[in-house]
Amino acid sequence: MKNTFRFFALAAVVAAFASCDKVETVNQPVKNNISIRIGTETKSLLRNGTEVRWSNQDKIRVFDDANVGFKFETTQSDVATAVFTCTDEGGWTGGVPVMAIHSYRPTVNQTAFDGTKVTANIYQNQMIHHNGSYARDGSLSIGVVGKEGSDYVVNEMKNCFSLIKFQLENKDITSVKMRGNNNEILAGWVNVSYNSGNPTWEVDGNRGEKEITITPGSNAGHSSNSTNTFFAVNDIDDNNDPVEGVYYIAVLPQTLASGLEIKLTKSNGSVATRTINSSIVLNRSKIKAFENPLDKDLTFETTHEPIILDCRDASKFVWASSDPFPTRTNKYNTEFNFWLTGQTGYVFRGNVYNWDKHLSWEKGKTIKLPNISGYSLVEMSVTSQKSSNTPTYTITDGTTTLASASINKNTSTFPVVFDVSAHPQSSTSPDRYLSVSDYEGCIKFILTYTKVSE
To answer: What's the whole-model pTM score?
Structure first.
């Protein structure tokens, strides 16, 4: 069954995905306060599998002819047309706007334009916030800014991604992971060229991602014990209303010559794998759909694979606030819970901020690392750090030092590995903390957890 599971294309859906209304404009009553009318292939929500909508959380970034970017936002929600206005402090202060990009926060604040290519991120960890849609942070589209009379317009923004549609039979699946059989780059940071309306992409350095993880948000599935699970086909939601679970994975367009592998995880930790060995063509701005529910005829088995939290890019962290994750110039003075996008079950806590994509905090502060039921932290691998000195990083259980190392920013022996496997987490000592001796801690790191022996 695994090798005969097939895709099929949805012509009607593809047509709808490839076209929509232009975005309306407004007058400019204040100097340097501009709005842009945009026509686009994609929005942040899908309705009824074909209709596209803007959300009031949508943001775009507009670059001027000096390659300086400005943030534009809309306050409208679930509409086919919307108004985007510059919301940067001081309004639009640049030259002529030349390029616009649609990408969900916080990446909208970290995109770049060199006059030819836009650098942006399609997230590896994608949380779907609405049933029948795809993750906001999986969206990436660009367009050239022009003029119609006195109005700035983008006659059509072009998608830089493809969508894979899937449904499920089981009601307790917490995540779906996809990987190409040839380890192709499916997401991550890319440089995109507009290419006369047919965008092309290339990986930005070594920042490509070979695996995509999809999880449901609170409005896209069942909520139980803080663990969200996807809706199934012809399911009943938490309010006992009928619902049909439909989801989309955003992926970089390409041909997966040897197919792909998909792993599905249930709330009890059991895993099933779907393998497709035939070539799969993922066309830009089009949808590829599974013919049957993704987990049809699969057997779920208990697995003891390690849980790996890749914290090398602080822009992937989110927190329980409508504001963007704190930056160096936007610090918060109190501790708060935060987690990697799409991994709400693995919660950190601390007074931290994002400094140039490094997770940062100050001397005297600690970060409480995730406590994962049934698993124990065994290793922290530091791949880089940013400091003028040589700070010492320490992992403790709150009282006892479990591992410690001083890390010089100029060292050539990365990664530096903190081995805490000799100190398994237990019910009497469940928590692990990270602290720094210098004035400021600023590192990129990976945490590895393994299953606790029963």
So the answer is: 0.70
